[in-house]
Structure formats: C-alpha cells, structure tokens
Amino acid sequence: MSRFALVLGSHTFTDSRLDRLRSPAHDVGELSRVLADPEIGQFAIISADNPTAQELRSNAEEFFGGRERDDVLLLYYTGHGIREGDELLLAGSDTDLDDLAGTALSATVLKNLLGTCRARRIVLILDCCYSGAFAHRMVPMGEQRVHVQEFFGGRGLTLITASTAREYAFEAGEVTEADPMPSVFTGELIRGLDSGAADLDGDGEITLDELYQFLFDAVQLAQPGQQTPCRWVYGARGRMVIALRRPGPRPRVTASSAPDPVRLPAVRRQAVAMVPAAAAGVAALWGAWRYELVSLGFAGGCLLAAALAGMAACLLGETVLEADGLRIRGWHNTLVPWPSILAIECRTTLFGTTVAAHRADTAVTRRVVLPAPKRLRPFHPVGFDDDVETLRQWTLRRGSPAPVHYGRTLLPLRNAIAVTLIALTLLTGIDHPWNRGNDIASVPRACRTLDKKAANSLVGGGTATLDNLAVTVPRDPPAETMSQQESHCNWTYVKLFVSVGEVALQYTRYQTDADTSGPRQASQGVRKALAGEQRKHSRVTRPWQLANGGGFTAEARDRSAITVVAARDNIVVTLTFTSQQLSMPDHAQLLAIETRALHAVKPA
C-alpha cells in the first residue's frame, strides 16, 4: 500500500475579473510539508503552485493513473471555484471567464478520472472560494448553492469542502471582493495534523472522521455562523487513518456539544389510508385462490405487502435526527450517516407523498423511505413542510447539506408497470384463462379408449410373443362401470387360470359447487393423488406432455404397479398397470394411452 497526495493552489490570475487570493501560496507549501512528514502524513507529495488549467488537468491525469487498488490518494485544491450551469470548474492561473471550457478544470473531467482510478480510498479536499460570473450562462450564487457532491461519485471517495457559503456576491452586475482573508479552513487543517490536535481519541492515529470533526468544530469556533466545513461519503466504509500524531502530549481541543435528538413521529391515523389498498390486496388473493390465477395472486400480494408496510411505518415508525445521522425506527433500526445523504426527496406514491433519503454509502439501497414526515391521502398534516425543512436544516448544521427535491416522480408508475408486466407474463405463461376448463357434463366411456388392443400393448412391454399372448390372456369382456360422474374399465390378465395383472382406466368427473369450480376440483384431485403417491415413496416423474395440467407418473418401489394421472377440464384420467409377475410396460406407451384418454374428453 502506498500513499500519494496531489496539492494544488491557484492564487494569481491573468483574468482581472478573478481576484487575487492571498492564502493559497502559503497553504500549498505548509500542507505539503505536513503531509510529507514521515511522523505525520507519510505521503509522497506532488505539488503545483499557481498552475495553469492545462497543468491542473495533466497533474490530475498523472496522479490518478496507474494506481493500485490498496493505494491511498489525497487531492487538495485551493483557489477559485466557478459554476457555469450545472458544471463546477476549478480555476487555473490562466482561466478566462469567457472561455471556461478550455481554460479551467471541469468537475466532469475530474469525476471521470476518479471513476477510472483503481484506488478505492480517495480523499478529495476543496478549499474553494466561489466567484461570480458575467455571462448569462453563469448561475448567480445568490440564487443557487453549489452542491459539489452532485458532481462526484464512485466507491471509496470522501469529499470535504471548506464551506457551503460563497465568498463573493453580485453587486450591480460587478464582481466585488467581500472581505477576503487567509483560509481559516486550511489553516485549521494544517494545525490539526501538525500538532496532533485532530487525534480526538488520543490513540496516536488521526482518522478521516476525527479530522473532519476537528475541522468542523475549529472553523465553527473561529467563524461562528459564517463558515461550515462539509463532508460527503461515497461508498467509503470502515476506519481510514489519514495521518499519525507525533509522540508527545496531545493539545487540548474544545469540542462542540452534540445537539439533542429531534424526533419526527409518524402520524398513526394515516394508517387508515392504507386500509382500502390492503382490502383490495386481500380480495385479489381470494380471487386468485378461488379461480387459480397466479397472476392475480402476484398482483394482490404486491398490493397487500405495500399496504401492510405502509401501515407498519405509520403505526411503528419514527424518524430521529441525531448528531451522527438519520435514525429510522420501525421493524428494525437503521442509522444513515449525514455525510452519506445526497438529497432529500419528496416523492409522490400510490398513497400520497413520502420523504426518502438518497444515500451514497451503499450500492444496494440507494433510497431509504422515512417513516416521517409523510402526507397520505386524504390527510394533510399541517407540519409536513416544516418537518421537511427541519430535516434539511439538520443536514446543513451537521456539515452535509442536502437539497430537497420536490415534485412528482415516475417511481409509482414504474412500479405499477413492473408489477403489471410480471402479472401479464404469469397470465400468459401459467394461468391461460382463455383455456380455462369447461364444465363437462358427462364422462367418456373408458373401455372405448382402453380397448383390447391398447391393453394388450402394455402387457409384457407390448411385445406380441407366443409366450405372453398364448399363455397370458385377458378376460374378455373387461369389467366396466359407467355413470354420469365416473367411467371405469378394468382388464384382468390370467395365466393358467390365475390372475397375473390388471390394466385399468378411470374417468372421474368433478362438478362445480357453490365454493369451487369443477376444473379446480379436478386439479386438486390430481394434487391429492400426487401427495398420496409421494407418501408411499413412489418414484414420481412429471412428463412434459402432462406437466401443464399437473399430471404425473408414479411407479411403486417394488415395481409392482405404475400409475398415470392427469386432468382435462373437470375430468381426471387415471391409468393403472398392476402386476407382480409381468414386466413393467414402457412409459412412452402409458403416456400415449393417457394422452389419447385426455383427448377423448370433449365438451358436449
């Protein structure tokens, strides 16, 4: 593992509209010294004082290229930060406000370099004073804050900025300097590392969390209410040591007191808004059970699950704003650290408006829906907007300001489309409602399907030899029973007047009653027969010709019997071969007779 740092500072500019900065020249030298100290930072330093825009780009490209996965990289920039439209640009000494695309380092270029870098522990520190602009393309700082976290992403990246405030303001179309002063942020950064004051727990190591907490408290103490160092985390996990503390006593540090937690309880009466959806889900599940529609069951299950989750959030949930992050209480407790929250989203859903935290510290769950605040139809809580503003203010005060995004989203529509597509797939692939069974009024005659020729084809594997036909013969006529509900044909084979085997075919008709349709009762009959064979530990197979209707073949363990069961409409067809002395017939011949028996089932 190697440690590399790139320290960049811009202070004198050829464009007269960019004011000269006093602190970067001093800050670059001092920070490079501290980071390179073998007792503190142990970084290999690359520094550039007042580089041009091209030098900024080439230094960044060389710095992020050719790194190993375990390397620790730190990039520091101090100078002017400029925003043009949605783009953040870092100024070089030759930056021209009329040609920012060609004379400044854009955040897009920097983001691409970060994305292609193999290192997974990267720290980006920006001490930028945001300057105004003259062309209509520039976004006035008084109208919109620069959210630098919007521009950077990637796993293992920690972004620290000096402030959320702007150092310059518009005045009558001119850019005027507003009390420039040496960088308080970088001064405290150097002091915390050089003196060891940032080692808050006194273990001799300065972690990234300790360094930021020290900067936050020190800058707030130096300029209360004027400057708030900020931090965002993108996938970085675990404890990262950024420097060591020199041996010796640790300086005393005045730490800010943690604020008292603020609780945003869910409005429990809003659970009533979920009742219609839950009732609709239950009705869909009942209909799926009643009519055997997997697609309807899936849609109803999704609706019921969403409704129950919403009810649980209203009844059990609570959002707690703590010093370390956003705690979500409900079925289980989840803490979302403030630096990992990129935005607060007020989203329109099926039930109303919910608030979600868009997080960047995990690749699995990017958005976490909060139990509160929440505004569900038909309720309109008076304090909803106030709670959202409280949440935004907490992200600002804890150094990780997150914007609030209002408006309708396509998420409910996307979810509905996804559920609908899956349900349609199940409908066409499994349910086949257009092929749902007819309620056939009578059963076919079993002995017409299982005639003597068909029965003989099963005896002895279907081979017509002198031994098995001259000696083993069927009793003719077969035993036959016939009614509107059932048809049975049984051929008994004898050898020297002794019964040696039987071949039987049976049609069983199920009639629709008040609760269950005939076709469904037939399917249940096949499943019961299957369960019975499995209890007897028969060898069960599901031939493709019969599988769509739940059909199966079952062969006894002692190979004394084999049964084929399948259903069509409301008729169950059962073909059985039983013998202790004759060889088992070929399965293909059994399936051929079963298939012919199924085809004999026709609506009246």
Distance between the termini: 82 Å
Share of helix, binned: 25-40%
Number of helices: 16
Radius of gyration: 39 Å
The general outline is: elongated
Strand content: 25-35%
Which regions have little confidence, pLDDT < 50, spanning 5+ residues? 130-154, 165-181, 461-470
Q: What's the β-strand tally?
A: 28
Describe the largest sheet: 8 strands, mixed
Alpha-beta classification: alpha+beta
- Say what oligomer this is: single chain
Mean pLDDT: 81
Overview of the structural elements:
The chain is α+β, with helices and mostly antiparallel strands and 604 residues long. It has 16 helices and 28 strands. The strands form 6 sheets. Strands 1, 2, 3, 4, 5, 6, 7 and 11 form an 8-stranded mixed sheet that branches. Strands 21, 22, 23, 24, 25, 26, 27 and 28 form an 8-stranded antiparallel sheet that branches. A hairpin with a 2-residue loop joins β3 and β4 (87-91). The model is unreliable at 130-154, 165-181 and 461-470 (pLDDT under 50).
Q: Any chance you could write out the topology, listing elements then pairs?
A:
Blueprint: E1 3-9, H1 24-36, E2 44-49, H2 53-64, E3 72-84, E4 87-91, H3 100-103, E5 104-106, H4 107-116, E6 121-130, E7 157-161, E8 168-171, E9 174-177, H5 184-195, E10 205-207, H6 208-222, E11 230-234, E12 241-244, E13 262-265, H7 275-291, H8 294-316, E14 318-321, E15 325-329, E16 334-337, E17 341-348, E18 352-359, E19 367-376, H9 384-397, E20 404-405, H10 411-431, H11 446-449, H12 452-458, H13 466-470, E21 472-474, E22 479-482, E23 486-495, E24 498-509, H14 518-535, E25 539-541, H15 544-547, E26 552-555, E27 561-568, E28 571-579, H16 587-599
Parallel strand pairs: 1-2, 1-3, 3-6, 6-7, 17-20
Antiparallel strand pairs: 3-4, 4-5, 7-11, 8-9, 10-12, 13-14, 14-15, 15-16, 17-18, 18-19, 21-23, 22-23, 23-24, 24-28, 25-26, 26-27, 27-28
